[in-house]
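fyi for ur records
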Amino acid sequence: MPDYVVSRLTVAMNRNRQPVNGSRILLLGLAYKRNTSDAREAPATRIAQQLLALDADLRVVDPYVDDRWLDPRVTRVELTADEIAAADAVVVVADHDAFDYDLVARHARYVLDTRHRVTGEQVEYL
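which gave:
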């Protein structure tokens, strides 16, 4: 599934004439399951590695997973209107209850939602 997520994101960005290379991607959730800190074998880890291999400027939000699971090339950020608006794409990977999905819907240019938590015209679902 991580390969498919990255493929779908790449196709969507290409459709908007924007390469993944150099684009700011905001990943929501690193955990294996919602509302947990367990990141072992989490799909988000593989997604992050693939996006980094494509030279994306990767930002991640996860209130539960600690930094030991983060690649040093990834920037941890808070989920704010400014961070969302600055992202070329937002990818919802783990649907933590702590995330403000309405904030994401109001400020994101494009959302690839793997958990069906965000609504809006700019949202695509898996």
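The longest helix spans residues 2-15. thats all i got for now
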